[in-house]
C-alpha cells in the first residue's frame, strides 16, 4: 500500500520508520510519505533503499539491535531533514514459534534482542532530537502475542515494549511528546524477502506455527487475520495530530482477540 488516504496529513513532519523494508513498516512508511511526510526508511536489509526510492524518500541501513545503529539512524534523520517529529518503532517479530519448554537459552536472548532492544534503544536515541523540536510522538508496534501461545520470549519482549510506552509517556507528557503503541494481532503478509528466522523453520516449527494460527483465529472475535493495511492505518492515526490527546495507550488491533 502506498496511496495517500489523507493527503497532506503529515505535511512538514519528519518521520522515522524502523523496519521499513517489508511488511507493516513498509506500508506505514510508504503511506506516511504519500501523505506528505519527510520519511526516513530505516532497516537492516539493504533493499530498503529500493523501497524508499518508490516514495522518492531516503533510506538508512542500520542494525537497530545495537545502540550505535539506533543512535546513527536518528542522527542521520535529524541531519538530513533538520529534525525529527515522529518515530515509529516497528522492528520486531517472533523469530521462532515453539512451546516455551523447547526454547534454548540463546534463542530466548535472540527474541529479546529482536523485539525489545530496537524499541528501547531507538526511544532513547530519538529523545535529544524530539527535545530540540519541542515535542513529537513515538509510536511503538507491540503485539497481541502478550496473550498467545508458543512465543513466550517474544511475548515478554512485547510486554516490555508496552511498559516502555506507558512509563515513557508519563515522563514525557510535560515535554509535549506523546508515546503510544498498537498491539497487532495475526496479520497476513506476502512472502517475506527477509525471513524472521534466517535458519529456516523446521517441520516441528511449522506445526507449532499452525497451532498459533489456529489459536489466534479461534480467539479473535472476527476469526480472521488482519491485512497489512488494517495495521498501518491505526499506527498512522496514532502518529498524527488527530491523536493529540492520546498518550500512554496501547491500542489492540486484533479483531477482538483477548487471548
Ligand atoms: N505480522 C504479524 O502477524 C504481526 C503480529 C503482531 C505484531 N507484529 C509486529 O509488527 C512489526 C512488523 O511485523 P512484520 O510482520 O511486518 O515484520 P517483518 O518480519 O516482515 O519485517 C521486519 C523488518 O524489520 C527489519 N529488521 C529486523 N531486525 C532488524 C534490526 N535488528 N535492525 C533493523 N531492521 C531490522 C527486517 O529486515 C524487516 O524489513 C513487528 O514489531 C512485529 O512484532 C506483527
TrEMBL record:
This is Dihydroxycyclohexadiene carboxylate dehydrogenase. InterPro entries: BenD, NAD(P)-bd_dom_sf, Sc_DH/Rdtase_CS, SDR_fam. One of its GO terms (biological process) is fatty acid elongation. It comes from the Bacteria. Coiled coil: none annotated. Gene3D superfamilies: NAD(P)-binding Rossmann-like Domain. Belongs to the short-chain dehydrogenases/reductases (SDR) family. Pfam families: adh_short. PANTHER family: OXIDOREDUCTASE (PTHR42760:SF123), SHORT-CHAIN DEHYDROGENASES/REDUCTASES FAMILY MEMBER (PTHR42760). It comes from Paracoccus sulfuroxidans.
Amino acid at each position: 500500500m502506498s496511496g495517500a488516504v489523507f493527503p497532506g496529513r503529515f505535511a512538514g513532519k519528519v518521520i522515522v520508520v524502523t523496519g521499513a523494508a517489508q511488511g507493516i513498516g513498509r506500508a506505514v512508511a510508504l503511506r506516511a510519505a504519500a501523505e506528505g511526510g519527510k520519511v526516513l526508511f530505516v532497516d537492516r536489509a539493504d533493499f530498503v533503499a529500493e523501497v524508499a526510492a518508490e516514495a522518492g524518500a531516503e533510506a538508512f541501513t542500520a542494525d537497530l539491535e545495537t545502540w550505535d545503529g539506533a543512535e546513527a539512524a536518528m542522527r542521520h534523520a535529524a541531519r538530513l531533514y533538520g529534525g525529527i517529529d515522529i518515530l515509529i518503532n516497528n522492528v520486531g517479530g517472533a523469530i521462532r514459534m515453539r512451546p516455551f519448554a523447547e526454547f534454548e537459552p540463546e534463542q530466548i536472548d535472540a527474541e529479546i534482542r529482536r523485539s525489545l532492544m530496537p524499541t528501547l534503544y531507538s526511544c532513547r536515541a530519538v529523545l535529544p532530537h524530539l527535545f530540540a523540536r519541542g515535542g513529537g510522538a513515538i509510536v511503538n508496534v507491540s503485539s497481541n502475542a502478550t496473550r498467545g501461545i508458543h512465543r513466550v520470549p517474544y511475548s515478554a519482549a512485547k510486554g516490555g515494549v508496552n511498559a516502555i510506552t506507558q512509563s515513557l509517556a508519563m515522563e514525557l507528557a510535560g515535554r509535549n511528546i506523546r508515546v503510544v503503541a498498537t498491539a497487532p494481532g495475526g496479520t497476513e503478509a506476502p512472502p517475506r524477502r527477509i525471513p524472521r528466522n534466517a535458519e529456516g523453520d523446521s517441520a516441528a516449527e511449522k506445526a507449532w506455527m499452525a497451532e498459533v494460527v489456529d489459536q489466534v483465529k479461534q480467539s479473535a472475535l472476527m476469526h480472521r487475520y488482519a491485512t497489512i493495511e488494517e495495521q498501518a492505518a491505526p499506527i498512522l492515526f496514532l502518529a498524527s495530530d488527530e491523536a493529540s490527546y492520546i498518550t500512554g495507550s496501547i491500542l489492540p488491533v486484533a479483531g477482538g482477540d483477548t487471548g
